[in-house]
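Look at one such:
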Amino acid sequence: MVGGVCGVWCGVHVGFCMVEGFPPMYTSLPYTPLSYTPCRTLPFVHYRSTTIAPHTTTGLQQIVTNFEQTAEQVSGPVAIVAVGAEAARTDVAGLFQFAAILNINLAVVNILPLPALDGGYLLLLLVEGVRGKKLPQNVENAVMASGLLLLTGLGFALIVKDTLSFL
């Protein structure tokens, strides 16, 4: 549930509460209970998802086109946990909004055509479709292994960077 809504599904109260209306991406404002039915929740979730996803793609474009200025703003798992812990200390609505934003960001990154991600598999399928035959297994394995190595190295570098910034 994106944005943090209270909902009623089959007569059971689910979700959590938040500021009335469509709040900013993260807020520590007081929140009020809302009672959304699934018919009202789905348009809200769609609205919040379609407002967050373009910010993610813009951020990724800025990393590629303006790497020198944006590289220091990139964070890894350590910083994500720290921000999540701060959101949890603030209020539960902020924590759920942070989780929603994080999930949307992961979905956008996962669809990028990088080896070892879903987008990489889709790209390989597209290449196979254009070629009209399957790629040799050793080529596919090498591409996916190189992508996994690249992503693991990037993740390790971000963990070190975040850890050093917290010291």
In short: The beta strands are 6-9, 12-15. The longest helix spans residues 137-166. Residues 1-32 have pLDDT under 50 and may be disordered.
